[in-house]
Amino acid sequence: FLYYIHNNNIMFQIQVFQLIVLMVTIQLTASYLRSSFIRSSVNLNTVRHSSIKSTLAEPDLPSISREIASINSLSFQSTLDTKEFVTDRKDLTIFVVDSSMPGGIQRINSVKGAVSRTIPFEKAAVIACFGGSAEVVLEPTSSLSLANRKLVNLKKSVMGNLGVGLQKAIDIINQELPNGSKDITVVILADGKAHGLVSGTSECYIETTDVCDDLLYESAQMLSSLKSQSKSNNTKLNIVVIDTEESKISTSSFGEGSRLAIASDASYYRVPNLSDTSLSKLIKDIKSKE
After folding, report:
1. In what order do the strands lie in the sheet with 267-270?
2. CA–CA separation, 159 vs 153, rounded Å?
């Protein structure tokens, strides 16, 4: 190759020389770029390693403690706000419903509808009288979803014991009074003619002055006493007897519905064609008048 260059003209020699210079330049440039890349990679790895060491370093405990204290303070304040909302004094309506026949289904459906209209603006409780006894189906609550779940268990039965139902209502009243309910309304829904049959003492129908069932009469008297006591504090106790008996016996001297209202110092209403709408309206009107 050198021999060939030597024996050819000078121009060709110059071109070959330029080509060699170009190749050397390219090689030197490539070497420089390669070394620069290696140095930058080493620096980047150093930075990453420092960052990882910083992350894994011992935490700044005083700073973290201050952050936790701040979060706890906000959480505590939020809890206080929630408690103030939850414990806000709300009126309470206690439904005592005789779910026995006749008229049990009508009273049950009326109570379910009235509860849905009462909650969440007020609290509601439901006591069902059935099977010779009574049970608190819904504890006092302002949660509509809870009420819907619990009231599924409200079904018709036979021989509800209204006296036991009123005893359970009295227990709820005594529990709620210290909690500061604004007003408490006890709504008693039953078949007036059947009131005297709950204890098997229907022979006392010959008496015209008292309620036949001793426990029912005692419970009514206790409600009347609680109503008198409530006047001395900030709670107002309303008692309502709603008689769904279709015949007029409940309004006669032999009717248990009107006598129960007298014994408990309650307002008495005879509503044979009771519905959830009429029950809600009646309760609203009673509360506005009291």
Report:
1. 133-141, 123-130, 92-98, 183-190, 236-243, 267-270
2. 17
**pLDDT tens digits for 115-169?**
999 998 899 999 998 888 899 999 999 999 999 999 998 888 777 788 899 999 9
**Largest Cα–Cα distance of the chain, in whole Å?**
154
The candidate with the shortest Cα–Cα distance to 227, out of 271, 263, 274, is 263
Phi and psi (nearest 5°) for 132? 75, 5
- Residue 110's SS3 state is helix
Residue (of 125, 162, 166, 131) closest to 146 by Cα position:
125
Question: CB–CB of 123/89 below 8 Å?
Answer: no
For residue 87, count CB atoms less than 10 angstroms from its CB and return exposed for 0-12, middle for 13-18, buried for 19 or more.
Answer: exposed
Provide the β-strand partners of residue 92. Answer: 123, 184
Among candidate residues 266, 280, 288, the one with its CA nearest the CA of residue 113: 280
For residues 179, 140, 267, 174, the Cα torsion angle rounded to the nearest 10 degrees is -40
Model confidence band, residue 84 (pLDDT cutoffs 50, 70, 90):
very low
Phi-psi region of 132 (alpha: psi -120 to 50; beta: other; left: phi over 0): left
Residues 6+ apart with CB under 8 A from 180: 89, 234, 235
